[in-house]
Amino acid sequence: MPRTELTHRFDEAFAYASERFAGKVRGNTRVPSIAHAMAVSALALDMGADETEAIAALLHDVVEDGGGHAALDHIRAEWGEQVAALVELSTDEIEPSGRPWREVKEDYLARLPTEPVAALRISLADKADNTRTLLRGLSEEGDALFARHTAGDRDTFLWYYESLVAIFRSRREELGDACASVLTELTRVVDLLRERSG
Fold this sequence. Notes:
- The protein has helices spanning about 10-20, 35-45, 50-60, 65-80, 80-90, 100-110, 115-140, 145-150, 155-170, 170-175, 180-195.
- By secondary structure, the chain is mainly alpha-helical.
- The longest helix has 25 residues, at about 115-140.
- The model has no long low-confidence stretch (mean pLDDT about 90).
């Protein structure tokens, strides 16, 4: 796999993400929010992402976490249409709609099977890092983790992540060999989340 060169575009995206997430931490942890953006971008690069995809991975939560249309427009102006399109595909809702969590996730799952491979890779990286954090939370809190999660309950939460695993597996060939270890890890962690809960 050829090495991905990162240029000033990536550096500028990292500075922007750091600014957007300044002072924020991941839900009920002491981990800075920027750490998740960094992890998702690093995982995407490990799976063969080019710079455009790595930037989109770095910025994947900016729109959803309060940036809305203004942030998406800024991303498009600064990093181009390809980055903006991948960020939009990674976003459940550009602006909050107030719809139930499950309904929003059902819409996301419905479109994931036909999304471009670059968007699928970002989603796989995102979910792999999310589930690592969730598994840590489960070991510290037990099933209280599910009660405070936006999903609202254990079964809904596990339904979402198990559905994601099934979609990623169905597109395993398109994702390629470079993604195999991340998909294996995600599958293992989701299985552990089920085994260690309830």
